[in-house]
Design a protein that fits this description.
88 residues; 4 helices; 49% helix; 25% strand
């Protein structure tokens, strides 16, 4: 769920930055506007991480997920998620 939340947050940030309406963003992403609205409100069921990364790519650039495993003795194993825009 954390990964999808981060992806949805980044999608929302880009839509706001580009001053897109939900309708226009949905056209760019190739998904229905109600599905985009749900995604932006945190309703991720039925939308895969792969589809969300594809949405980021449609909004501009190439994105990939990077995972970093952290070993902390006092807190156990932790994972950190990074979104990285790839240079072309």
């Amino acid at each position: 769920m954390y990964v999808k939340a981060r992806l949805a947050s980044k999608i929302s940030d880009i839509i706001c930055y580009r001053h897109l309406t939900q309708q226009r963003a949905a056209e760019i992403l190739g998904i229905p506007q109600p599905k985009l609205s749900g995604l932006l409100r945190g309703q991720f069921r039925g939308i895969s991480e792969t589809k969300m990364i594809a949405c980021l790519n449609h909004l501009g650039g190439r994105w990939k997920l990077l995972y970093e495993k952290l070993h902390l003795i006092s807190c156990g194993d932790r994972h950190r998620l990074f979104l990285q825009k790839q240079l072309e």
